[in-house]
Amino acid sequence: MVWGGLHITTRPADEDYPYGYGKAETLATVVVSVMLLGAALGIAVAAIGEIRTPHHLPAPFTLVVLAVVVVVKETLFRTVLKVGGETGSPAVEADAWHHRSDAITSAAAFVGIAIALWGGPGWESADDWAALIAAAVIAINGISLLRPAVRELMDRMPTGPNIEKIAAAAADVEAVRAIEKLVVRKLGAEYHVDLHVQADPSMSLFDAHVLSGKVKGAIRAAVPAVKGVLIHMEPYAGEDASADVRGSEAT
Questions:
Q1: N or C terminus of the chain with fewer C-beta within 10 Å?
Q2: Alpha-carbon distance 11 to 37, whole Å?
Q3: Domain extent for 209
Q4: Do residue 106 and residue 180 come from a single domain?
């Protein structure tokens, strides 16, 4: 699922999708998050069924298997999460947490089975109670990944240092008197920026065009993840004009 989303995301923009295919990666993140929630529900239902129905003690060799699984899955989690952070890919980060959920489940099973084997008859359900705890942790991870993905699908204004860098880069360009109405959309790992720039009212149309190009270049240099920049030039409205960065107003 993650590979498919990333593959579609790399397609160039066209007439049907002028902003590109970046949302495919976000959709992949949503699907992976829902899969995590489904896994948590399935584990919880199975564990409750085992608690209500007496069963035999687990086999001791399962502890060795689970220990190997925890090590492998935790290694995969750290490796994939690092790649996701370097590329800014929410889908890859979601896949990393999928590995972490496997590690958590296996670790919980290891503890539960160890308690069951140590306690002997009457402690058979210890691993099932551990599974319930693991299911809760997995569900929390799934929700924490799903919420930002849904916000991105709804084009919520992103927040964070990149937005501040975009505003600062535009304001620092020579001949820019003020900026306002900074609006940013995030599509996968890319940003699309709409910005109103105020300049000297006596500036010619040609000079305003050149200035807008300088602002675009400054923004892209400050935040390489910015794919598109749309600049609307306006006459400087005086000291009362202030930047409107809509990072905290979106719901």
A1: C
A2: 30
A3: 161-235
A4: no
| Model pLDDT for residues 112-137, shown as the tens digit of each residue | 888 877 877 767 677 788 888 888 88
Q: Is residue 231 part of a domain?
A: yes
User: What are the backbone dihedrals phi and psi of residue 191, each rounded to the nearest 5 degrees, phi first?
Assistant: -120, 145
Residue 194 domain-assigned?
A: yes
187 & 132 share domain: no
Cα separation of 179 and 21, whole Å? Answer: 29
The pLDDT tens digits for 72-110 are 999 999 999 888 888 777 778 877 887 887 888 788 888
Number of continuous H segments (helices) and E segments (strands) in the chain? 7, 3
**Which conformational region is residue 160 in: left (phi greater than 0), alpha (psi within -120 to 50 degrees), or beta?**
left
CATH number of the domain enclosing 19? 1.20.1510.10
